[in-house]
Amino acid sequence: MPRLRAAADPLETARRLAGCLREHGGCVETPYDGRRAAAEDGDGLYLELSTRTAYGLELARLLAAELGHRLALPEDRVADIELAVHEGLINGLVHGNLGISAPSPRSPEQFSAYCRRVERALSADGEGGRRRIAVAARWDAEALEVAVRDQGAGYEPDRRPIHMDDSRTLGQGLTLIAALTRGMTVSGHGRTLTMRFSR
Amino acid sequence: MDYEIIVDQDSVGTLRCQGRLTLPASGGFATVSDQMKATGCRTWIVDLSGVDFIDSAGMWTLLMMRDVVMQMNGRLTLSGAAGQVAKALRLTRFDDLIGVEP
């Protein structure tokens, strides 16, 4: 499996990532801890990146575009996949790997402080930025499944409303995912989110 | 997020957003809100026609903009949403929370 080395320029890293996806079917960022990728065989894509690298890329856009190309998906399905995977990635990266909770109450000051906490956690040479996020996509003739797995502390999933509730905090990503997918499963004590899409 | 603030002769403010309205792109939101307040406008249109992607954090920033304008006893309306942006707003019934115009 080819290895991706993150470049200083996020756009350059994105170009290399897109190249790995298109030419080989998967990529793992170096240094890699040696665990085998779960989706190396069969029809699938597997990516495993550090939090720091993944947050700086438009990873969901790259992945959705590549899946659209490989599976000849219609444009609106590609857009649904991009948003659902993006929300899953942000949840895993920020709330999972960086361990940063959504700001509350809603205010520009709280939101700015939240964004600064994220930036600080990414720029510091801390554990959160080094934690991995893994994305595994598998498909057959009828369906596509994308799983996002983080290395955070996890949580016990609850049931969420399917509409944007004015009183809630930032954590509306799962609401969108539920609306965009054919189904989703949270497992591994909240560390793995699996999303299913029709083809 | 790239943006531009335009104030017309009737003191209606337009915030014209460009690009992606996402968490990684929203770090400068406090500056935007300060600039909106500094105009003194109470009627605002957020023009989303240049936005090609929005996520839940982007929608949250729109709610904060609405809060800022409501604190000035004003009104904020969204316009120009298309494609993925329009779909995300529709899926979350966003028009229950903020006025949405074509």
UniProtKB/TrEMBL annotation, chain B:
Gene3D superfamilies assigned to the protein according to its UniProt record, in alphabetical order: STAS domain
SUPFAM superfamilies noted in UniProt: SpoIIaa-like
Protein name: STAS domain protein
Molecular function per GO: anti-sigma factor antagonist activity
Domain STAS: 2-102
